[in-house]
Each structure stands twice: as C-alpha cells, then as structure tokens.
C-alpha cells in the first residue's frame, strides 16, 4: 500500500467515520476532532499489520469517541440550562430508503435517547443497528467477548424505545406544522398549531448560558402555546425565517441579518400519530457555528 492509496482509503471512510462520531458524541466539532485524531493515528500505523482498513479505522474512531465522551460528560456537570445535541443540516431524499434509515438516527429525539445509554451501550447499538457491523466486529471494536457485545445491544434496545424515537413523520405533515408555527408567531393564530401538538408536548431550549432562553423544560400544550405566543412572538419577530432540513427532519432556521449570523434553529419530534411531542430550540451560538456545512452521513 503506497501513500496515495493509504490516503484514499481514509478519505473514502471519512464520511462514515464522521457520521458515527457525531451520533456517539452529539457534537459536530467533537466528531471532527475524533476523526482528525483517527487520521493522525492512521498516518503513523504500521500498514503491514492491518488486514481490514475499514474495520481498523472504525475501531480507532470509536475508541477515541468513547474517550471524548467521558470528558464531555464531565463538562456537562456545569452546563447552564438544558443540553441539546448540536444541530446539523441534512440533505433529504425521500426515495432512498437507506438514507431515510440513516437520517432517522440523526433526529434530536433519537440522539437524546442515546444519552440515556452508557457509552459502550451507545457505541455497540450504533455500530450494529445503524452501521450494520456484525456482532463479532462490534466485540472486537469494543475489546470484549461477542456475547458481551450482544448483551450491550440487547440492553440498549430494551431499556429505551429507540424504534419509537426513529419514527418518520411524512414531510407533508412536517411542512404543515412549519406553516402553522409561522402563523402562530407572525399572525397570532394558534388554532392550527394547537391541533398539531400532543397534549404532553415539551419545549426544550439550549442557550448554553451564553444567550437568554428558558432554562427548564416546558411541558403541556397550554404552557408551550403560552410561551410561544407571549415570548417568541416578540423575540423572533425581527428574524428572517428559513425552512430547512435539520437532523433528518424539516425545521426552522432563524437568521439575524443585522449580525449576519444564525440566531436559532428549531427542530421537532413526533409521536406515532404524527403529532408534535417535542420542540427543540438551539440558541447556543457555539453549536450554530458549523450549521449549514456539508451534511454528515
């Protein structure tokens, strides 16, 4: 294997490694750090010892992500307010079933449910269920017996409703919601929006202590609607609204033209009936820096 082939192998694996790292870490910046660290290690490795480059790269990246995840959890102890995964822009293709399966594992609701798992449970589940690795390779990546890897995946699937979190609501329904949300903010008409919200809908906002936002999670349709009408109507009136694909679903991008920056993104979670059961507002400027760059796969 010459230097050019060595580099080509890594570049072909990069999108997959980024997608895996983002799902484990919930942060694009941290995911890029993990992939860069993997690249540096790839440059130094004795090539004669590698039988399957793709497996080697996946193992190295996963293990680096697990190290970074420990550090990230320590930082979150002092995090101000609610923590949400960093939003990413995703291109959509309704005709590609494989792509839909991948983007459904990028939703904010799905990533938050992964937060309930231990780091190794999360890695094992993603490697096997999302990226299609056989249990034998998962075990090797996580340096454990195959039976232990099987138990990790089984426990992850049992402990939380991952299949429910990956429910895909038709785009027409999502666009209907975006229209109703806009009418509520700019026209004061909440009837259409109210009809699309579940009774136990929750609103979570992440400001990271850097911008003003609600600190706790708001619960219940009346409470959430009151916040939207009483607060967001005033706060968001001067922002430019754009509709885009955020973490595999339709969402809102709010731009502050005066500052030439993204002020917020809004993503949604849906229940099995297609009603909104979660509203996720990202206001933390550090997590909006990379939004709009090429999508992670």
From TrEMBL:
Residues 109-158 form the RNA polymerase sigma factor 70 region 4 type domain. SUPFAM superfamilies: NTF2-like, Sigma2 domain of RNA polymerase sigma factors, Sigma3 and sigma4 domains of RNA polymerase sigma factors. It comes from the Bacteria. Signal peptide: none annotated. GO terms for biological process: DNA-templated transcription initiation. InterPro entries: ECF_Sigma-70_Domain, NTF2-like_dom_sf, RNA_pol_sigma-70_dom, RNA_pol_sigma70_r2, RNA_pol_sigma70_r4_t2, RNA_pol_sigma_r2, RNA_pol_sigma_r3/r4-like, WH-like_DNA-bd_sf. One of its GO terms (molecular function) is sigma factor activity. Residues 10-74 form the RNA polymerase sigma-70 region domain. Interacts transiently with the RNA polymerase catalytic core formed by RpoA, RpoB, RpoC and RpoZ (2 alpha, 1 beta, 1 beta' and 1 omega subunit) to form the RNA polymerase holoenzyme that can initiate transcription. This is RNA polymerase sigma factor SigJ. The lineage of its organism: Bacteria, Pseudomonadati, Pseudomonadota, Alphaproteobacteria, Hyphomicrobiales. The gene is sigJ.
